[in-house]
Amino acid sequence: MSNFVGYIKSAIKQMKHNGSKTLMTMLGIIIGIAAVITVVTLGSGMQQYVMDQFNKLNGNYAELTINQQKTSDFFTEEDVKLVEEELSGIKGITPIYAGNGKVKGDRGICHANVYGGNGAMEYFFSKPIIKGKYFTKQQVEAGENVCVIDRDDAKELFKTEDCVGKELELSIGDKTATYTVVGIKDRFDSLAKMSLGEEHIAFVEVPYTAYAVDYGQSIDKWYELLLFADQDVLQEKCDKAGLILNNAHGGRGSNVVKANTLANISDMIDDYLGTVKGFLIAVALISLLVGGIGIMNIMLVSVAERTREIGIRKSIGARTGAITMQFLIESAILTLLAGIIGIVVGIGLSNVLCLALKMKPVILPESVVIAAGVSITIGIFFGLYPARKAAKMKPIDALRV
Questions:
Q1: DSSP classification of residue 10
Q2: Range of lowest pLDDT (191-200, 236-245, 334-343, 360-369)
Q3: Which of 26, 46, 296, 354 is deepest in the core (most CB within 10 A)?
Q4: 216: which DSSP letter?
Q5: How far apart, in whole angstroms, are the C-alpha atoms of residue 74 and residue 197?
Q6: Which residue among 238, 260, 282 closes a domain?
Q7: Tally of domains in the chain
Q8: Is the pLDDT of residue 54 over 70?
Q9: Does residue 393 or residue 354 have the better pLDDT?
Q10: Do 178 and 290 fall into the same domain?
């Protein structure tokens, strides 16, 4: 125990003696550890943020698409009725039209993403109606020009949320139609509304029958359906709906109809973000490698400067293991201290960057432990050669210097 304490005191003394050399050597480890902590924290925080926002965005529906390369069939109203009759426990199923254009109210104009569907579209963005009501089955069947927007759109177009009953002009391409606002939804999540620079984008939901007539689409032939269900049963309902529609279109075993949920896309995004994070961590680890080489260099310099000390110690009986241990402990303490500073810097930097990016920092305890372990490992690994070189010196050769 006394020998170990002596090794630590000797290490601290040598670190003070080398001064600026020690500091510059530690800097490589500090930067490497801080970079790893920061990348892991930012990467994990970004993954959590994106996935949370993505799941909030449209996490309650499945997409059913018909493959036109395998069949000339389309989805029709009969397919919608078939799924509704044979599949219990769903919130609804709807055809979906989508287009980009502009919307004009009596107090403003902005870009618009327009979605056409039936009454089940109420579940599309999972936001409740706060004023008015959603368009009804009867309004869809009659092809009425009614629409639903969110509260931010209402303020942008009418400068007030109290705009139920007011009219707006909706343009897609060279076609323009007038729609009456019947409902206002709560505001959408940040990822739902992608911005075009600083411009506002409205989300307008209309009956698919009105959309088809006003913007030149087929009113009874569709390539895509959306199925809505609670998240815990969505995948099951998606698979069953796909089976029902495949059978209806003679695609048993050939996947004429493809059924996917956003869970599949979510997994793909998560895997992609994980790959990017892994790459950035690998880049950060390169700086640790450079720092390790710096540790080896300063230890070699230390061995050269302390040759006579090593010779004297060996001449009075110091064992090879003791000399090796002394230099290894010096190397390990140097990197451990640099690692601790790097962890503190990394955590601090991560919090600052996450705050600036408006993300919640996700600091994984295992990343801190691993960082500390890596720093010590680097010290031992890169300190081993200088330590062995010092320990193998012959006393007579060392004393000649």
A1: H
A2: 191-200
A3: 26
A4: T
A5: 38
A6: 260
A7: 2
A8: no
A9: 354
A10: no
Burial of 186 from C-beta contacts in 10 A (0-12 / 13-18 / 19+): middle
| Euclidean distance between CA atoms 389 and 399, whole angstroms | 15
- Helix boundaries (H) for 19-160: 20-58, 77-86, 137-142, 151-158
- Choose between 262 and 119: higher pLDDT: 119
Same-domain pairing of 160 and 284: no
Report how far residue 349's alpha carbon sits from residue 335's, in angstroms, rounded to the nearest whole number: 20
Q: Is 144 helix (H, G, I), strand (E, B) or coil?
A: coil
Q: How large is the average pLDDT for residues 359-371?
A: 73
Residue 94, classed as helix, strand or coil, is strand
Please give the Cα distance from 118 to 28 (Å, whole number). 61
Cα separation, 375 vs 26, in Å, equals: 10
Single-letter residue type at 311: G
Predicted confidence band at 398 (pLDDT cuts at 50, 70, 90)?
very low
The type of residue at 390 is: A
Give dist(CA 180, CA 160) in Å, integer.
Answer: 15
- The tokens of 332 are what? 């390990």
- Torsion sign (Cα): 225, 230, 233, 234: positive
> Rounded to whole angstroms, how far apart are CA atoms 108 and 121?
25
Q: Do 162 and 279 belong to one domain?
A: no
Comparing C-alpha atoms, which of 163, 144, 189, 192 is closest to residue 103?
Answer: 163
Residues shown for the chain: 401
* Residue carrying structure tokens 């895509």: 224
Q: Domain span at residue 236?
A: 59-260
Instruction: Please indicate, yes or no, whether residues 43 and 79 belong to a single structural domain of this protein.
Output: no
Alpha-carbon torsion (370, 375, 376, 377), positive or negative = positive
**Sheet containing 61-66: which strands, arranged edge to edge?**
92-95, 224-228, 61-66, 257-261
Spatial separation of the C-alpha atoms in residues 375 and 34, rounded to whole Å: 11
Q: Collapsing DSSP states into helix, strand and coil, what is residue 72?
A: coil
Residues 167 and 92 in one domain: yes
Task: Write down the residue that tokens 């193998």 correspond to.
Answer: 392
Q: For residue 183, list its beta bridge partners.
A: 132, 148
CA-atom Rg of the chain in angstroms: 33
